[in-house]
Amino acid sequence: MDRFLNGIERTGNRLPDPGMLFVYCLGLVLVLSALFSMVSFSYINPRTGEALQIANLMDAEYLTGLFASMVKTFTGFAPLGMVLASVMGVGIAESSGYINIALKKMIRITPDKLLAPAVVFIGAVSSIATDAGYVLVIPIGAIIFKAAGRHPLAGLAAAFAGVSGGFSAGLLPSALDPLLQSFTQSSAQLLDPDYQMNPLANFYFTFCSTFVVTLMGWFVTERIVEPHLQSVEVSETEAETTSMGSYNAQENRAFNISSLVLLGMGAALFALCLPEASPMRTADGSLTAFTSPLMRSIVPLIFLFFLVPGVIYGRMTGTFKNHRDIMNGMSDSMKTMSSYIVLAFFCAQFLKAFGDSNLGTLLALSGADLLQAMNLPGQITIIGIILLTAVVNLFVGSASAKWAIIGPIFVPMLMAVGISPELAQAAYRIGDSSSNIITPMMAYYPVIIVFAQRYVKNAGIGTIASMMMPYSILFMVGWTAFLLLFWALGLPLGIGATYAYPVM
């Protein structure tokens, strides 16, 4: 296994810098789009209902528009604002010392042997906050492991596995549930116009999956990844050497008061969300709908929930003597994100061109067409869908975008052979989550590289891929087996869900 992972790391690190990789990929998309635009396809684009046509991005008009909209594409890149706003809030809590003492207390009460499952579990649960776990849980996972005297990249890997590999798991419903349900139901209605599906149709399965993902992540972290990282030296200039075992009475008092304020803010938010007429709900009373004010306020809430206790703690301990110290704390947190901002610029241009070309749609449709032609038994078909979704995820990162493309093909196809839309959606979620952690095309992958470089200067795509490959393989196999076990035992997938669809 060590030789295998070392081979992945060596090969991956021979790749260009991630920023240049996106530049090369952009050039490849431009060339391929010109070539495939001359080919006629029989596929129907499910998003438009028209024949699929690859757009020629080498057209002078498109290239002119691409250059003219570069700044708008960059500033409109969704992960950019989320990452920077969240990091500013977390930066205040870090620079004040609030997170440091919180970790000291956590390490005091958490046995060293349980740090790995705790980090993976918290990562999986963070799916309730949609993408916020990428910029919140992952760096904290590295800090916790470093503070406990363990390799920080092992903590980063465990957190990344929980957040991204376990994205479709969770103890509470998230915005992803109604988002995917809307696509699944509309896809099912292509075959059965009266078909209705509950947004929590996979909730029981995803709830139980949280613990399965935690156990698998724990095993991989301690048996494979952490031993593999023993030879990887941590950069002393970036690694914190602060003792995590002690704190004085003033720090303890400041932490307790800051934490009480944090709990009060949480209680106030809960009270605000509780009434049916709450301004944090949608018009129909939903809190977890993707369009609800609560879901759209996740990043500002993270900013405030770290900023306020961080400022209180800093003022009480003297870390922040005036408002300039607070602003400097935010500025310092931005310094570590400069390389990510550069990466985000090129990543945004590539993703825009790739989406405009329809090449991703062609890959999804051709793969789904092949699976349909194979006419395999139900269990094998489900495994095939999981594998195909994982492969498509290497090219199309967005969970909703992929399902919008392949859902209208997968769902009616499976209904025609007696497999329910709810089961098809559960299979899709496994394939999507399991391969999230190994695709550099995922929007947050550059962020993970930047976090890793805080501890290992020469960390690159190969470093992350070699760490995350074992998680991806075990998640794919173990989670698929868990779904098949659920199916074999007849356990309910979620509210109003079934496994079978009556074939006429």
Automatic annotation (TrEMBL):
InterPro entries with a match to the protein in the record: AbgT
Transmembrane parts of this sequence: 21-44, 64-93, 114-145, 201-220, 254-277, 297-316, 337-355, 375-396, 403-421, 433-452, 473-501
Protein name: AbgT family transporter
Lineage of origin: Bacteria, Pseudomonadati, Pseudomonadota, Gammaproteobacteria, Oceanospirillales
UniProtKB keywords: Membrane, Transmembrane, Transmembrane helix
Coiled coil: none
Species name: Endozoicomonas euniceicola
